[in-house]
Every structure is written in C-alpha cells, then in structure tokens.
Amino acid sequence: MKNKNILIILPVNNFNEQEFVITKTVLSRAGFNLFIASDAPSLCYGDKRLKVKPDINFYNISEPNFCGIVFIGGKGAREYWNNESLHLIINKFNKAGKIVAAICAAPVILANAGILNNLNAVCFPTAKNELTKSGAVYVDEPVVISKNIITAKDYNAAEEFAFNIVSIDN
What we know:
Layout (H helix, E strand, L loop, with lengths): L4 E5 L3 E3 L1 H13 L3 E6 L5 E3 L4 E2 L3 E2 L10 E4 L12 H12 L3 E5 L3 H6 L7 E2 L6 H6 L3 E2 L4 E4 L2 E4 L5 H12 L1
Parallel strand pairs: 1-3, 1-7, 2-4, 3-6, 7-8, 8-12, 9-10
Antiparallel strand pairs: 4-5, 11-12
Helix pairs in contact: 1-5
C-alpha cells in the first residue's frame, strides 16, 4: 500500500485558518493520514484563534515516514521564511521526489530553501518580491505546479491547492 501519511506545517501564531481547514478536509477525505508539525511549545493559534495541537516537532520529522509536506500560510508563515531546519527538511522531501506544497506566504519558505530556482511559483502578492529574489519565477495564477512542487496564492485557492496535492499523489 502506498504511504498516505502527509505532514502539515503550521506556524506557531497567525496561520490562515481557512487554508488549514480546507486543505485538511480535502486531504482527509482523500484518505491521507495527517500529521501536524510545528515548533510551537504546545499549541498553534490561527488568525481567528483556532487552536491546534501539533503531533510532531520539527526536530522529530523523518522524511521517509511521509509522502509529502504541506506548508500553511498566513502572517505567521513569515516567521519560517529563513528557518534553516525547515530548509533542510524541504530539501530532503524534494530530493526524494515527494510532494512539497505551500500556500499564501509559505512558498517563500520553499524559495529560500533553494528548491524553486528557475521554477514557476505563486504566493500571496505582498510576498512576491521575497519569492522572486530567491530565484523563483512568479506566475499570477491561483495554483502553480512545477514537478512535485505545488504553490498557491491564497485561501481562495485552498480547495484547488488541496485537490492538486491529491492528484499529484495518485
């Protein structure tokens, strides 16, 4: 049986709740086993104060246990733009050809990890300069797929984003 474990990375504070709930719902219905990861000491807080308890800390992520990694955006994702631990994890997933997905402000994390060099990608418009200065080619579309990497603009694209994660896995 194909590995259906997928990792969802949540910022400690101010993650976009709509992106999280929509993505989580679509992936769950498609049969994925979801694991929430963060560097939060206890709970992650959404932009409307939804509380989510992470299952895994960044330091305990083992890439072989998962078929992909998904970064949820929101203002809090900016705290992870230059997180070296996440950059190493992203590169492991990417080198293994696994799903690497990010929405809203989170695609900048992928760009700063070096995996979007000369690849098409999208992010929340206010983060566009950060995305492109790390070598990504900004494309103004709701969702962009480049190989095993999926990026999405914002919460309005969350459903399409999640369905693309499902389809790339099949």
